[in-house]
Amino acid sequence: MRATLRIFSLLASAAMLSGCAVATAPRVSLAGESVAPYLADTMRERADGLQGFDGLASGEGMVFVYPDARVRTFGMKNVGFAIDIVFIGLDGTVSGIASLEPGDPRKIESPGPSRFVVELPKGWAAEHGVVVGSRFTYDDGR
Prior knowledge:
Jelly Rolls, seven-stranded mixed β-sheet
């Protein structure tokens, strides 16, 4: 996944040098704090999630983008580091936050329908003032 982000950056740089139009990377923020996103916007990427990642740096997160709004269920399937899961309600605000440790068998359900879910390093949400009701922004650059 990290290699994909690096490849995107290299391709964007090459396109700029050649004069081609450049797609911009998505911009994401929670409570006004920027998050460097790894996108999970296909069925496969959403199913894999953070599996295979060694961890997330502060300010990095995986943003799950769904084509429809439904209650979402998340867990720790093959994720070896602690995370915060931030559910985004239909009004664009945080509707729920949960923290999970590696091996935790619980499944966490969003409090209501959601099109976006963000996974972050554990503690990042609290450290940056992200609470239920905080504003979420997602700009895919289109």
